[in-house]
Write a structure and sequence with these properties.
With 194 residues, the protein is an alpha/beta fold. It is built from six helices and seven strands; from the N terminus they run H-E-E-E-H-E-H-E-H-H-E-E-H. Bound molecules: iron/sulfur cluster. The site of iron/sulfur cluster has 15 residues, from loops. InterPro entries: Aldolase_TIM, NrdG, Organic_radical-activating, rSAM, rSAM_sf.
Length: 194
């Protein structure tokens, strides 16, 4: 059956949506030490604001750029402290849309690299596809260059599959970011089970 246009996520033109115009630097939630947002024990930061408007979005409240509380230095210090636990593998950015909140995400990931080098990994979810991010604004490319793993693309209700690892729909991919940037093509995360 054909889907009507209203039942599909939005498709931005390159650089149509910019964090510098949209982000309020608000945080919807912070969850330390969880097991579901990527590999291993992770600290998850949910940033506020997303314009893709995917039908069936798992976190609709966080589509609002004013949802939640402002990002603060105290929260950043708490995240760094939590990441310092030896059993914690890394940080996960999700939302909302991390690539429309680059002011917060770039600052935090740079601090993580400063404090921990690459001994902690950084995952990010995004509604943008890999090829869209490569054609978009400099801040999006900068964030991409700082992370290890990207789960890309919108959530598509028609392709929903709850058996997939770390993804909600089968169009989404788990991408090894440094390897993909180096190769000039998408290299999938090599511990993908399904
Ligand atoms: S990209 Fe993610 S956060 Fe944004 S509307 Fe779609 S499912 Fe929701």
């Amino acid at each position: 059956m054909l889907q009507s246009k209203e039942r599909l996520p939005k498709n931005p033109r390159p650089k149509e949506w910019l964090a510098s115009e949209l982000s309020q630097q608000y945080i919807a939630d912070y969850k330390p030490f969880n097991f579901v947002d990527g590999e291993g024990v992770r600290c998850s930061l949910y940033v506020s604001g997303c314009k893709f408007a995917c039908p069936g979005c798992y976190n609709k409240a966080a589509q609002n750029f004013h949802y939640g509380v402002p990002y603060t230095q105290d929260l950043e210090d708490a995240i760094i402290k939590d990441l310092g636990e030896s059993y914690c593998q890394g940080l996960t950015l999700l939302g909302g849309e991390p690539f429309l909140n680059t002011q917060v995400c770039i600052k935090l990931v740079k601090r993580i690299r400063q404090e921990f080098g690459h001994s902690k990994d950084v995952w990010s979810w995004s509604g943008y596809r890999w090829d869209e991010l490569l054609r978009d604004s400099d801040d999006k490319l900068e964030l991409l260059s700082l992370i290890d793993v990207l789960v890309d693309d919108r959530f598509m209700l028609a392709k929903k599959d709850l058996t997939l690892q770390f993804r909600g729909s089968s169009n989404q991919r788990i991408i090894n970011v440094p390897a993909s940037l180096k190769a000039g093509r998408i290299v999938l995360w090599d511990r993908l089970l399904k």
